[in-house]
Design goal:
With 169 residues, this protein is α+β, with helices and mostly antiparallel strands. Strands 1, 2, 3, 4 and 5 form a five-stranded antiparallel beta sheet that branches. 51% of the residues lie in helices and 24% in strands. 11% of the residues are buried. The protein folds into two domains: 62 residues; 100 residues, 2-Layer Sandwich (Alpha-Beta Plaits), CATH 3.30.70.60. The longest helix has 41 residues.
Length: 169
């Protein structure tokens, strides 16, 4: 009788020990999954802050893109900048608009006459304008052989604008 009770008890303990081992293995797998998720979630705040910073930067840059109605004001700013830099503006010519997926590029051909350092002031002033203006190509040559120090600069600059609702591609 004692042997039968001992055998039954051992069988029950053995099955309980087997089940305990299985549960411990499951616990290990679940713990690893939890730790992995915790690592992902811990970086979520940093990612959200980065996304917010990128959205703010995007809004700031988009605000620097003029709408079509603001382009004449930008032309006035460029003209005034040329004059206050001590340059004579020979020609300002808008070139055909170049459509991009999210914006439109407005190239501008400029021809200016003045002293070397005045061109530096002008280009520096372009960079300081409240609207985005990029200088893509320029040439600088003496105005004449007279040696008076006057130079002619021709440059291709571009500004950018957002699409109007009716002109979006």
């Amino acid at each position: 009788v004692g042997f039968v009770l001992l055998a039954g008890y051992l069988l029950q303990i053995h099955s309980a020990l087997t089940r305990l081992e299985q549960e411990r293995a499951t616990e290990t797998v679940l713990k690893a999954g939890f730790e992995s998720m915790a690592a992902h979630v811990s970086g979520l705040d940093a990612h959200l802050q980065q996304m917010q910073a990128l959205e703010n930067s995007f809004r700031h840059l988009m605000a620097q893109l003029p709408r079509k109605a603001e382009v004449p004001a930008l032309l006035d700013q460029i003209s005034l900048l040329g004059l206050t830099s001590g340059l004579m503006i020979e020609r300002i010519q808008w070139l055909p608009e170049v459509l991009q997926p999210f914006y439109s590029e407005l190239p501008l051909q400029l021809s200016l006459v003045g002293a070397y350092h005045d061109f530096g002031l002008f280009v520096s002033g372009l960079a300081g304008l409240p609207r985005i203006v990029t200088v893509q190509d320029f040439t600088l040559a003496p105005l004449s052989d007279a040696g008076n120090g006057q130079l002619r600069m021709t440059l291709l600059a571009s500004t950018y604008r957002t699409y109007d609702q009716e002109s979006a591609p």
